[in-house]
Amino acid sequence: MDHVLDRYADIAVIAGFTAGIDAYGLGFLAVTGVLMTSYLGTQIQAVGIGREYGGLLGRADRLALMGVVGVVAAVYAEPLFAGLNVVGLLLVVFAAVGHLTAVQRFLGAWRDL
């Protein structure tokens, strides 16, 4: 149940950030990156290799970033780079690093098999 509730929390927060800046395509990429990272970790464990926590951005890191970005966005919402504010940049990070981490975990599991 812990993993399931964690995923729902990830979805809720990322959906809120996405709706707040009206960037649904970017939000889709971010939430799928986060979900695939977690999914691969549990699936690797399910096939008996052991739980995989490796990668660039773990759950604790994501939670800390979400909290910091939420506070910063409440104070400063202006665009910072490429027309994106701090929330948009966080979604870019979640999308890019999430999918990269998922691929890293997949390749690591493939080698272990």
In short:
By secondary structure, this protein is mainly alpha-helical. The chain has helices at 2-21, 24-46, 59-75, 86-112. It has one domain (2-112): CDP-alcohol phosphotransferase transmembrane (TM) domain (Four Helix Bundle (Hemerythrin (Met), subunit A)), CATH 1.20.120.1760.
Number of strands: 0
Determine the strand fraction and express it as a percent band: under 5%
Can you tell me the overall shape? elongated
Query: Could you please say which CATH topology applies here?
Result: Four Helix Bundle (Hemerythrin (Met), subunit A)
Please, what is the average pLDDT?
90
State the helix count. Answer: 4
Order of helical and strand elements = HHHH
CATH evolutionary superfamily: CDP-alcohol phosphotransferase transmembrane (TM) domain
Number of domains: 1
Cα distance spanning the termini: 27 Å
pLDDT < 50 runs, ≥5 residues: none
Structural class from helices and strands?
Answer: mainly alpha
Under the CATH scheme, the architecture is Up-down Bundle
Computed over alpha carbons, the radius of gyration is 15 Å
Q: In which range does the helix fraction lie?
A: over 70%
What characterizes the major β-sheet?
none
